[in-house]
Structure formats: C-alpha cells, structure tokens
C-alpha cells in the first residue's frame, strides 16, 4: 500500500510549515513541501520530502505544482494551506500594493489551491483540506489591518467551503493559531512614515511585531503546535475547527464580550508603552 500524500505550502526554514512536514513524515506520509524557492527549504532533508517551488500568488505556479504531484502520485490526501504574509502598520500608512500582497497571499492563495485541488479530491472522497488562519481573523487588533482582514476572509471562505464540501465527502479543517514561535520578527521591519498621523505610537506599532514571540504573550513552541495539529488532522475524525497557541484563551474571552467593550480593551492594550527593548530589533 502506497504512503499517503500531504501537500503543504509555506515550508520555509524555521516556520510552521517546516515543522508540520516533520510530523506528517513521522505519521508515515510522503510530504510535498513548497515555498517560493526550493533554497528556502534547505533544512528539509528527509527522504520522504519532495520539494517544489510554488508561489501561491501565481495561478500558473499553483496549477503546475499540483499537476506535478498528481502525475507522480495517486492523489493528495491532505492539503495544508500555510503560506502567509504579514504586514505591520496603520491602515492609513499602508500602500495599496502592499495590502494587496497580503490579501493575495493569505486569502487568494488558498482560493487558488482549492480551485485546483478540491475537484480532484472530490473524485476520491478520501481527502482533507486544512486552512491555517489566525485568531486575528476572529477579533481584529490595531496596526495589522490587512493581515486581520485577509484572515477574516479566509475564515469565512473556509467555513463556506466546509459546508459545500459535505456532499463531496471532502473534510475541511480551519486552524486558528494564536502566538506560535516563528522567525516572523526577524523578517519584519517597520518605520513610521514622516507624514504619518501615528508618529507618537511608533514604539507600540513596532511592538506588534515582537510581542507574539514573547513569554508574556504565552508563545507556543512551533514543534509542539505542529505535533498537535498533525495529530488532530490525521485522526479518524479530524475537528472542523482547532485553535491553540498563546493568547487564544484571552481572545476567546474577548469574543464573548460586547463588541464595543472588546474593541475598547484591545485598543487600550495597544496604546500601552511597551517594555524597553521589546519594540524593535534587539
């Protein structure tokens, strides 16, 4: 019997996707790991990993990657849409092109995968689609508006997809991580524009990039997160929704409060002066 196939996007070194690969392999899967460049996945060296360059913002790249997988295998058993793009900064300071890049990656990237993969999965009726969203898709926080919006769209799309996939016998899982250890703060950079209305909040805005990686925020180890997610996904009855990581409990409480109260509390926290040395490169 051939090994099951997992197709995971966003598998660059040091991220959630790379950790997911290791745990799928431990479960006996062949993993097709993708990123925009194969070189970005140099740490993935297991013999059960097949590395492909796939850009989820490009229609042809996505279609070609999936065609190659189906040419080499009997089909994809688990699709994990993990590729993501983060942007920090007030909405008024964010160039339109930058906002589109966030949405193209985080939302339309998943849409492209679904359009190409789910019709093929429906013919087998044995497959699972997993969307990696964010707790910020459920309750917005300041200074990362396009990221919030892209994840909110992803959540709504995934919930609709789940209902519409029921007659196709394709399972759909939405994962909403909280704070997970990653290299996002290393890759991020932000400087308040000279003409910004938010110059007095520069420290707070920069702090957004780093706070999710701190003990104060309850950051969860990437490998621990991946182990739980893969364990749930590969179970006989995977959950429809899964949320874990730092700040998830507090976010759950905020969601139950009146919306105006929750927003007031979040804005109050966003305006707090961060501890020295925690709002920019160390």
From TrEMBL:
Keyword annotations from UniProtKB, A to Z: NADP, Oxidoreductase
The answer to whether the entry has keyword Oxidoreductase is yes
Entry keyword Transcription: no
Q: Name one GO molecular function term.
A: oxidoreductase activity
- Source domain of life is Eukaryota
Matching Pfam families: adh_short
Which family would the database say this protein is a member of?
Belongs to the short-chain dehydrogenases/reductases (SDR) family.
Q: What is this protein called?
A: NAD-binding protein
* Species: Mycena venus
Upper taxonomic lineage:
Eukaryota, Fungi, Dikarya, Basidiomycota, Agaricomycotina
